[in-house]
Queue: 2 jobs
Job 1
Amino acid sequence: MTSGLWQLVLHGVWVTVQLLVLSALLGGVVAFAAGIGRTHRRWIVRFVAGLYTEVFRGTSALVMIFWVFFVLPLAFGWQLVPLWAGTLALGLTYGAYGAEIVRGALIAVDPAQKEGGIALGFTPAQRLRKIVLPQAVPEMIPPFSNLLIELLKGTALVSVMGMGDLAFSGNLVRLALQESAEIYTYVLLIYFVIAFLLTRGMRALERKLKAGVGRAPVKEKAVAAAEPAGAPVAGGVR
Amino acid sequence: MNWDWSAVSDFMPHFWDGLVVTLEALALGSLISFALGLVWALLMRTPTRWVRWPVGVVTEFVRDTPLLVQLFFLFYVLPERGVTMSALTTGVVAIGLHYSTYTMQVYRAGIEAVPVGQWEAATALSLPVRRTWTAVILPQAVRRVVPALGNYVIAMLKDTPMLMVITVLEMLGQARLFSQQTFRFTEPLTVIGVAFVVVSYLASLLLRTLERRLVR
């Protein structure tokens, strides 16, 4: 392989990473919105969030990409830049999977924690932000880590639409060299390395978040009410 | 938004052809992944790490790299090595191999969930290793993991459109061919999008029934 071809591959890596970061951000926002929506008090919010998750989980990511690239411009007159079209399709599809993770983690929080919040007169938003989420988020990290790997693998799909990501540059190199074993081995290895780095990063994040659970905020004085997990010892401080 | 029902009815014959290919790929891919996944799971339990370690690395590698690139790899590299398979066969093998690395973990969890007492009972009855697995452990383990395996069947269904890139005419391939011939994109793509939602919903209903029957 010549250096020119390597440059092509590196550019592909850059596009893949960009797409991964953008769609992970969109997917994360959508996942939290839909996941929290599914535990909302009003049935209409639960229904809309549930409909979104079922539809986007039900259909295939590749079909969704085709739809965003071909149907959206015709039907609504929105012609998106390929990067944004890919981000939209991937973010919405994987966001729907993420919504299930968020919902699962939210209902897994001990009901007594929520009741404690009610007893202390917290508003629903405060309960969510100060009591439920800090305990639920660390539990979401391992499944989110798996989902992130799925998303990384999903980004290869945009190459079908001619976007110059890593898989696409692999195809170009194959056409240039008329030889496929070498370049595809490299491409697979690069994907593997990215996935490995992602899992490591997520594991570090999980450790960091778990260490913060049950501690009082730094700037305030430690009061018993700020310790969600500290119920048995709450009366013991003299 | 212009929706043309006549384009839908023109597309329907192609759609049924595509659906058959999709379901065919799904059925064969599932069978390969169920069988191969069990093989991986059993290999991971062999006492020597000279087997466990390579199997672990290979399956981890396959699991963490895109199915799309694996499809390209098999489709272009195997003929260079003198192995020629039809596009559908290549696709089925790729899907089966890819998902076997997932089902392997499902089986592992199922095997680990069998109570220790069952192992001890098998030892106490001095059952040979082979009988222990086939008569005691696996029947209990597999029964437990059917719902989880079913989830991967649905995931596989949603990955079959990727076979389009290696010229297999499954649902998405048919839709793309149809749109290229008639310049109508909205109808075929929406039809197959809805078809995926319907098929995976039906599959999940079926799965729930199966789950009630098997897991008690």
Job 2
Amino acid sequence: MGMTLAEKILARAAGRAAVKPDEIVVAEVDLAMSHENADLVRKSFAEIGVARVWDPSKIVIIFDHRIPAESEKTAATHKAVREFVAAQGIANFYDVGRGGICHQVLAERGHVKPGMVVVGTDSHTTTHGAFGAFATGIGATEMAGVWVEGRLWFKVPATIRIEVGGEFQPWISAKDLILYIIGKLGAAGADYRAVEFDGPAVRGMSRASRMVLTNLSMEMGAKVAFTPVDEIGPDADAVYERVLRIDLGRDIGEPQVACPHAVDNVKPLSAVGELEVHQCVLGSCTNGRLEDLQIAAGVVAGRTVHPRTRLIVIPASQAVYLDAMRAGYLETLMTAGAIINPPGCGPCVGVHQGILAAGEVCVSSTNRNFIGRMGSKDSSVYLASPAVVAATAIAGRLAHPQAVVEEALHA
Amino acid sequence: MPEGTLILRGRVAAVLGDNIDTDIIYPGRYLNITDRALTAGHLFELAYPEIRAHLQPGEIIVAGANFGCGSSREQAAAALKFAGAGAVVAGSFARIFYRNAINLGLPAVVAPEAAGLCRAGDEIEIDLASGSVRNLTRGSTVAAAALDPRAIELIEAGGLIPFLKRKYAA
């Protein structure tokens, strides 16, 4: 019997000929990534009492949640992690100004290879399935165990296969596709499952867009998510728990919006209704890449951010920042009235630059809209594509990019 | 509740709904607190501050499906444990929260019908090894998933840190 990609990778990493769903296997870890919460990991590691990490070359640490440090407390944790990294000889360390958002940096610096088992102390580690890796989030104490032993137990997940065909309609992107899927399956719809995306539409996407699919699969509970790579794939006779087929032309006619306070509370843009917006955020591990900045720059070019609204742009990494600067996107965005924040997680997790006040509404290209996620518990976050975020910033209210572009033409 | 106990008895502190996310359990703004004991002060701070205010040691949180969805933040499980929760019983758990709870020695019990069976203030008894939740106040019982032997080992040890500490003490 054939294996899905998740089964295939776990079988290899566990030294087994084959595995099947619900089995517990112990797999060797190829890559272990942490961000600032390496400070928690470091503390658990010290409590266990083992002197050296199992393999410093397989550990990557990337600061991103609060860079540069916004408080003395964070500065102290950064410092403690720097000292630990030096003492343990962890060469793959991306400090302030050297990296950016952990998932973007891990990807662009080539740390992830097809077939790897990757664990990260960040839930959006599922992103790396876009590179053919079995990549999943774990907690800090569990990571301390990985630092000691270099392996971890996993329950082999059943796999949901999602085949996507058809052509994207104008202004529709990977973000709209995955929000649509999350809306259909629900926040627990892929709990404990692997997700395999495939089909001509997925194969036609850029790597950056594929990363949007694998990244946000976490928001329906997925343990891992994959888009196709050349090096490794599922067997032709693999067994799936469920197969979904989506036709972009038939199913997704307009931009999708995840309304407060759940990522699966998804509506087509026109069904959300009139919404005055105070802040727009373009960034995050979901949608802070060059193609996202490019499309936003295209929407705002020659226009001005609405007086009611501020537009915060956060390139996902130093490299994205440089590329966007050289391509002129940042100049276009700034000329329109955007502020460019340093590469990192920014306000997505509510701890760094761009916090919302009570009563404020934000339309954001990020990944979560939970209560209080971006600031006050009485603020609201709507999740949407980079094009919708840019259009909304110009209109000052939730807006379809087509409407914003046409309005200016007629003005 | 002494660590290592496989039969837990306690009062239900609160019954919550589905999809209680980790931002509700422990707001992101406090992620730079890396002393586990200090996380307890921010449990449910934004959405349900009253639970934290009234939680007594050994009391049990009961919830619907997908408890702990969202972030991998271990502080969500730590805040529950250090605020005194004896266990979390939920219809289902998001996977990272579940592993975090067990790794910190906080029993996380899957019982799909528990939220419908329990009200705040009820006295319940959980058998982790065989898998059942008895509501002593109402005289009813619902099935729970028996804890995996690996998880039982960790609960009995008091969590992954003491477990590995013992394993590598030489």
